[in-house]
Amino acid sequence: MSAHVRLYSPAIGGDASVVVHGHYGRPVLVFPSEGGSAWDYETNGMVGAVGGLVEAGRVKLYCVDAYDAGERWRYESWIIDQVVPFMHQDLGGAQEILATG
């Protein structure tokens, strides 16, 4: 299962994508390479590589867009102020988040 959402950020002045893979499991925040998109993890075969963990409900992947046009603090603000609260809401409460990318 995958879902695509767009989250608005006042700091960026626009929205960016989050692609979610899985139904439940330990949350993993997935960063793309520089200039990449939220779809990169899937198109590069990484979702397939960890597909067993996703299908078994051991992890839930939250793949985000890169934001390279501007100051990094704006991207950090989007992650902290929009993406992390979205993840916690989606999971039904705050959980420790793993990160990869």
Q: How many alpha or pi helices?
A: 4
Order of the strands making up the biggest sheet = 1-2-4-3-5
What overall geometry do the principal axes of the alpha carbons give? globular
What's the mean pLDDT score? 93
Helix/strand order: EEEHHHEHE
Write down the CATH class.
Alpha Beta
CATH topology group: Rossmann fold
Radius of gyration: 13 Å
Distance between the termini: 20 Å
CATH architecture: 3-Layer(aba) Sandwich
Give a summary of the structure in a few sentences:
The protein has 101 residues and is of the alpha/beta class. It has 4 helices and 5 strands, in the order E-E-E-H-H-H-E-H-E.
Write up this protein.
The chain has 101 residues and is an alpha/beta fold. The protein has a single domain, classed as Alpha/Beta hydrolase fold, catalytic domain (Rossmann fold, 3-Layer(aba) Sandwich). Helices cover 33% and strands 30% of the residues. It contains 4 helices and 5 strands, in the order βββαααβαβ. The chain has a 5-stranded mixed sheet with strand order 1-2-4-3-5. Strand 1 and strand 2 form a beta hairpin. The radius of gyration is 13 Å and the shape is globular. The mean pLDDT is 93.
